[in-house]
């Protein structure tokens, strides 16, 4: 135990450097993914045939292929067509798109669970379809989607670790770096795992607070 | 000028004709009650008027302007209030926000004026004390009164009521009917689909009896006591037995 603590303290500055990248990856990907998710979910529920088809193909192809393959396409394959992305940018793009597809499905499910009468009532006071979606359907859907959204956020935090494979110096990469020098693989990777665990726990706790704050009473 | 004019309205679902050519008119300040057996197209007819359901044939006019065929039905819906059987209050909003969201988002009134309008209308339905509650915290009767206030806040030229008391426990029906009666006295133009025949007799200037997508008979409230058509008689007799 004391050895673990010593190794952990020694590696701590590296972990913190990595954590900055991990946070940057997770926060930007969840946010961009959220925007993608909302747009795709709306076009799958309220869009015309064309936007429905495009968004459905998008969701299915992203969910049907491994995240790592998507990341490698952006980082290793894109240069062949003349698009050079830095490791960080390639990672953020692929994580955002990946998370966007999953968020879209959660949000779509939530939109479809809203009673049809809500839309009718919004239309009946003279809102257009888009105003109704924006003011009535979407707010309720987003409140309802929070628990599954928290899940997606927690997944994403952990999945950012694959960015290490394209050279982003995030938490996992820092662990690898430290362990390859001091050979304390057990202690270092337990330390890395502990940090992920703590982040996810804080995240889950924070989100459950937010869920309670925005919950629709009695619904 | 007629507030509402419905000419030869028809609606089909697949080969099933739900509304078979209905025509009627409404004067300003008139309360018209539509009665008839369940599943005869009364609610469908109501929703065709503000085009929540798209009619297949026929023309509808609001104060002389044609609603059918307009590319912007929302402009007419701003002027036609609707009260639903299932209330359909916005679950994520407080009572006050439910009532003022229309004036704010649709009419673009400044927030303070919209709030004033909303509170006035909540007073009218006796619920200004519950303005910070959420729909789920209200009784059915209170929910429906908020539904009425929400429609009123848009200052409509006509309000459509789709069985406003059918989803309520019997002891809560009265408070909602009282509010509607008050509106009738104030001269609101209202088209009401209901199964409450006693209420229909009290409030209606005119009664329309509908069956199988057609108007069978219409006239003053006296037709409830002395119907001319055999089918109306049968329907009313069945109703009296049931009560």
Question: Helix and strand layout, with pairings?
Answer:
The complex is a heterodimer of chains A (219) and B (243).
Chain A: H1 2-45, H2 49-63, H3 67-77, H4 87-112, H5 116-124, H6 129-159, H7 171-182, H8 185-214
Chain B: E1 4-13, E2 16-26, E3 31-35, H1 42-49, E4 57-62, E5 65-66, H2 73-77, E6 80-83, H3 95-106, H4 111-124, H5 140-152, E7 158-162, H6 170-185, E8 190-193, H7 197-203, E9 206-211, E10 214-219, H8 230-242
Parallel strand pairs in B: 3-8, 3-9, 6-7, 7-8
Antiparallel strand pairs in B: 1-2, 1-4, 4-5, 9-10
Helix pairs in contact in B: 3-4, 3-5, 4-5, 5-6
Question: Keywords for this structure?
Answer:
heterodimer; A: 219 residues; mainly alpha; MetI-like fold; flat; B: 243 residues; alpha/beta; six-stranded mixed sheet; four-stranded antiparallel sheet; 8 helices; globular
Task: Provide a brief overview of the structure.
Chain A is mostly helical and 219 residues long.
Description:
- Chain A is flat and about 70 Å long.
- Chain A has helices at 2-45, 49-63, 67-77, 87-112, 116-124, 129-159, 171-182, 185-214.
- Chain A is built from 8 helices and no strands.
- The model of chain A has no long low-confidence stretch (mean pLDDT 96).
- In chain A, helix 1 crosses helix 8 (185-214), helix 3 runs antiparallel to helix 4 and helix 4 (87-112) crosses helix 6.
- Chain A is mainly α and 219 residues long.
- Chain B has 243 residues and is α/β, with parallel strands linked by helices.
- Helices cover 36% and strands 24% of the residues of chain B.
- Chain B has helices spanning 42-49, 73-77, 95-106, 111-124, 140-152, 170-185, 197-203, 230-242, and strands at residues 4-13, 16-26, 31-35, 57-62, 65-66, 80-83, 158-162, 190-193, 206-211, 214-219.
- A 6-stranded mixed sheet of chain B has the order 6-7-8-3-9-10, with helices on both faces. Chain B has a 4-stranded antiparallel sheet with strand order 2-1-4-5, covered by helices on one side.
- In chain B, helix 3 (95-106) crosses helix 4 (111-124) and helix 5 (140-152) packs parallel to helix 6 (170-185).
- The longest helix of chain B has 16 residues, at 170-185.
- The radius of gyration of chain B is 18 Å and the shape is globular.
- At the A-B interface, helix 5 and helix 6 of A face helix 2, strand 6 and helix 3 of B.
